[in-house]
Amino acid sequence: MCGFVSIIGETPATPSLMLGLQALQHRGQDAAGLATVNDGRFHLTKDLGLVTQAIPPEIAETLEGRAGIGHVRYPTAGRIATSEDAQPFLTRRPGILLAHNGNVTNVPELVEQLRAEGSFVLSTCDAEPILLLMSNALSRIRPTNHTAEDVAAAVGEVYARVRGGYSVVALLEIDGELTLVAFRDPHGIRPGVYGQRSDGAWIAASESVALDVLGTDKAADLPVGSVMFLRAGQPPRFIEITPPKPRHCVFERIYFARPDSRMEDGRVNRARWRLGRQLAREWQAKGHEIDVVVAVPDTSRPAAQAIAEELGVRHREGFIKNRYSGRTFIMPDQQTRNAALRLKLNPIREIFEGQRVLLIDDSIVRGNTMRRIATMVRDLSPASIHVGIFSPAVRHPCFYGIDMPTREELIAAQWAPDVVDKATAEYLGVDSVTFLSQEGLSAVFGDQICDACFTGDYVIPVSEAEKASIRAERRG
Asked: What is the CA radius of gyration of the chain?
């Protein structure tokens, strides 16, 4: 999972790109990169770390140009992050700067095909095969002076050969003008938005929060099945490649995107509120009674507030989250893992002591974190502990860009759907667990979603060989 922001205008791009990247920092903390185009020359820097670490001010000041692309990376494979895998990527013939968000499932197949065409993939990042496919396709059409129709044909080849979920931005010269190109996979699994700033500059990004910080209203989501061409001060141009078949990632709405982001179905915060209301109705049907609803910060707050309102009980902040603890690394033993969780989340005793508590979270994947949270709360002597999850049970890995483990590691995959609530409660050591039903999820979002992590219904088929390759990558 990653995030990108791109801009084309008449003023220096780097300051805006740096601001936009920091608004997207939640989408990737392993590496960051930034590249600009100035008078036909590309300037590129990328490294490991957060945005301000990977792109220090003294380096950012050297990146001149009125157009550019920034990227934050969170690899969904198990290998150790390297600066070589950071984005954006650049090819010199023809000159293309490119970044993407998502996950390509058939990378080994593409690497072999590209090798047969004389192109060698040097990184383990799946953005590079997309870039080389576009480059080769354009070069076959003509060596230079490419048109929008040429680029549309190259994107059509990407659609035909690349499997997975992806949204892409690229900068190259088209019809004699520097142009920002954007497109998504034919199902629009991964998100993307664009808007025009008051000075005429166009901005395309993974989430609308990057537009917000740059004072730009969202015009629309990146088109599905079409390629878009943006030039400063000009209206956008669209060329359809294939009829759109939207199946947007539901887990973006549940967990990954910022709550203030706006996607096809509206504000993410509103979606989580609706999920909370739906879960409240399903939880209430079980006949449990509680005194207080507590969110596990931060994603679950809107849902927890909606649940408390629907049930007519108190909503309280029960945990203080340490804003400075950074990412929790894999710890060598249980005692150290518990200490790491305590560093991130510290409970407020009086919220829990003697109370019938309903803990709300967005999902349970491996179950380890929620199990330690339940233990932490149980030490505060509550009258009872209930857990509400405003998504269905995660029973299948994601192959399209959300970092989810193999099916063997998914705690809910161990049990049949009709006993998963009870079995998970026993595993966590709590009085009850209620997952949102699949019907409840559909009631909120409809059917034009990718919910393969819950149902195993993969929008784009993933072969057993591709699954094995992805599992090997995730194991490192």
From this structure: 23
The pLDDT tens digits of the residues spanning 251-305 come to 999 999 999 999 999 999 999 999 999 999 999 999 999 999 999 998 999 999 9
Give the β-pairing of 193-196 and 202-205: antiparallel
Question: In the structure, how many helices (H) and strands (E) does the chain have?
Answer: 17, 24
Rounded average pLDDT over 148-168: 97
Residue 45 CA, chain-centre distance (Å), reads: 23
- With a pLDDT cut of 70, the percent of the chain lying above it is 94
Give dist(CA 192, CA 190) in Å, integer.
7
The residues, ordered by sequence, that sit 6+ positions from 287 with a Cβ below 8 Å of its Cβ are: none
**What is 270-446's CATH number?**
3.40.50.2020
DSSP 234-269: S--EEEESS-----EEHHIIIIIS-TT-EETTEEHH
Which of 255, 191, 209 minimizes the C-alpha distance to 23? 209
Name the DSSP letter for residue 147: -
Annotated catalytic residue: which of 2, 125, 249, 450?
Answer: 2
DSSP annotation of 229 reads: E
User: What does the alpha-carbon distance between residue 232 and residue 10 come to, in Å, rounded to a whole number?
Assistant: 7
Question: Is beta strand 237-240 parallel, antiparallel or unpaired with respect to 226-230?
Answer: antiparallel
Query: So where are the chain's domains?
Result: 2-247, 270-446
Whether residue 85 has a cis bond before it, omega within 30° of 0: no
Nearest C-alpha neighbor of 72 from the set 209, 201, 183: 209
User: 2-247 and 270-446: same fold?
Assistant: no
Residue 2 annotated as catalytic: yes
Cα separations (Å) of 300 from 72, 108, 152, 267, 359? Answer: 24, 37, 41, 15, 10
Mean pLDDT, the chain, integer: 93
pLDDT bracket for residue 329 (50, 70, 90): very low
Pull the structure tokens for residue 159. Answer: 């659609």
> What is the fold of 2-247?
Glutamine Phosphoribosylpyrophosphate, subunit 1, domain 1 (3.60.20)
